[in-house]
């Protein structure tokens, strides 16, 4: 950074300040690159402001005070907490999405099963109608055949009586002629 050759005001060496600044800048950049929640934009803006503050202070006063380092550390902790909360929210949202997709898949499978059952039911109803129609036609045909048999019995009975009558008449003629 821009602190080389300038002693610090609180007795901490320049190298320590540089390490603190590099650590803060590195953590801020990592936090900004991995943030994924809706508050990402406000967090990123805050991080940029803090980086500008760090760079601005190093350019103007050429050193960081212990208080500024503490403030940066607190800001860093807050950002880390926000990042952890955002990661938890993301993970929870992913789990909810996964569960919703599983329920949707199960519902789709159930719907497909219901459609198959409905198609099977419609096919069975069609077959039943055809069977009932065939049974109805056969019942009508049986009734017609039974009526024909009854008519034939009646005709046969009538013919039999007529034949018996003719046989008896011939017997009487033969008995009278003999």
Secondary structure elements and pairings:
Elements: H1 14-34, H2 40-60, H3 66-177
Helix pairs in contact: 1-2, 1-3
Report on this structure.
The protein has a domain at 14-91. Helix content is 87%, strand content 0%. It contains three helices and no strands. The chain starts with 13 loop residues before the first helix and ends with a helix. Residues 1-13, 34-40 and 57-62 have low confidence and may be disordered.
State the shape.
rod-shaped
Number of continuous helical runs: 3
Round the mean pLDDT to the nearest integer and report it: 80
Please give the largest β-sheet: none
Percentage of residues in helical conformation: over 70%
Strand content: under 5%
SSE order, as H and E? HHH
Strands, total number: 0
Radius of gyration: 53 Å
C-alpha termini separation:
161 Å
Low-confidence stretches: 1-13, 34-40, 57-62
Category by helix and strand content: mainly alpha
How would you describe this structure in keywords?
178 residues, mainly alpha, 3 helices, 87% helix, disordered N terminus
Short description:
With 178 residues, the chain is mainly alpha-helical.
């Amino acid at each position: 950074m821009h602190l080389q050759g300038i002693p610090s005001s609180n007795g901490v060496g320049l190298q320590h300040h540089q390490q603190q600044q590099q650590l803060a800048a590195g953590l801020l950049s990592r936090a900004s690159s991995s943030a994924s929640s809706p508050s990402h934009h406000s967090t990123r803006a805050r991080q940029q402001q803090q980086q500008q503050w760090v760079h601005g202070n190093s350019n103007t006063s050429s050193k960081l005070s212990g208080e500024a380092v503490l403030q940066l550390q607190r800001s860093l902790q807050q950002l880390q907490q926000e990042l952890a909360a955002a990661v938890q929210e993301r993970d929870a949202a992913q789990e909810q999405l996964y569960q919703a997709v599983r329920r949707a898949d199960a519902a789709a499978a159930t719907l497909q099963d219901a459609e198959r059952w409905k198609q099977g039911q419609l096919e069975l109803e069609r077959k039943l109608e055809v069977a009932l129609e065939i049974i109805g036609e056969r019942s009508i045909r049986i009734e017609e055949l039974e009526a024909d048999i009854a008519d034939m019995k009646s005709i046969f009975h009538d013919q039999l009586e007529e034949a018996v009558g003719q046989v008896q008449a011939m017997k009487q003629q033969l008995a009278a002629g003999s």
